[in-house]
Design a protein that fits this description.
With about 270 residues, this protein is of the alpha/beta class. The protein is built from 11 helices and 10 strands. Helices cover about 45% and strands about 15% of the residues. The chain is globular and about 50 Å long.
């Protein structure tokens, strides 16, 4: 029987910086009634070049912070952190974790040319999960990989278009197009903020795959299981309550979050010292 007093969950979300807001954006579209806590670890951004042991330490610290704040479940909204740390987090904490899945499977299944591009960080491209996914789903598919060096920093600086952004994107995407890629996987949660600039390069004949909507749907399914019944929040007013924390510049986080939801109040943004 449907629970007429459904639980309002507290969902923790973290990323190396503001990129995970692209995942938060998709989550609140389908679940606007939960409470959310977003952590931007911008003081340590980007994670990509950092050793795995350091990423695990940061993920462990942030997880502890989110649990202390009341998180019922945590979304690791960072491909690099998922690759480096989610196995350890699941072993050390009892709380459920949702990670970023490499979107190679839909790209490979939908490709008509047999060529796909993957734009990601070094940590993601060298990760076990990504490479297992390649073996499972991209057999017989040509995969053109490019490490998006410098793109995370541009997004953190709010440079979502312009000459520098266009130059780097063309450097990484042009080899994919020259090989005939008709699907390009965005393997970093910062990259969806560059979607319009990417489309200026690829045109309309290339599908750009952002895994964030699939992650949001997976979170919905997990919360429904935790609830023990269908999520039915029609009786509640849409609140979209999110608290934001950053180890870096608050203005950077506030500016990017307000691109998604302009009405967020100043007091929702906080400095984090860990």
């Amino acid at each position: 029987m449907l629970d007429h007093n459904p639980k309002i969950f507290t969902v923790g979300i973290f990323d190396s910086g503001v990129g995970g807001l692209s995942v938060w954006k998709e989550i609140i579209k389908i679940m606007p009634f939960n409470n959310y806590i977003y952590v931007s670890d911008s003081a340590y951004c980007p994670y990509g070049p950092r050793p795995q042991s350091e990423i695990i330490d940061r993920a462990r610290t942030i997880t502890t912070f989110l649990i202390d704040k009341g998180a019922d479940i945590i979304v690791v909204a960072c491909n690099t952190a998922t690759a480096a740390a989610i196995k350890t987090l699941r072993e050390e904490f009892t709380i459920p974790f949702i990670g970023m899945e490499p979107a190679v499977k839909p790209a490979a299944l939908c490709s008509k040319t047999g060529v796909i591009g993957v734009l990601a960080t070094k940590g993601t491209l060298s990760g076990t999960l990504y490479n297992q996914t390649l073996k499972t789903y991209a057999n017989g598919i040509e995969v053109v990989e490019r490490e998006g060096i410098g793109l995370v920093a541009l997004v953190e600086e709010g440079k979502l278009n312009g000459d520098e952004t266009d130059r780097l994107l063309r450097e990484y995407i042009t080899p994919m197009l020259e090989k005939g890629a008709d699907q390009i996987v965005l393997g970093c949660t910062h990259y969806p903020f560059l979607l319009e600039a990417i489309k200026q390069i690829t045109g309309n004949n290339v599908e750009i795959i952002d895994p964030a909507p699939a992650v949001a749907k997976h979170l919905y399914d997990v919360l429904e299981h935790m609830q023990g019944d269908k999520l039915d929040y029609e009786q509640f007013k849409s609140t979209k309550t999110t608290m934001f924390y950053t180890t870096g510049n608050i203005e950077t986080l506030r500016g990017m979050a307000r691109r998604i939801m302009p009405e967020i109040e100043d007091e929702k943004f906080n400095a984090a010292d860990f």
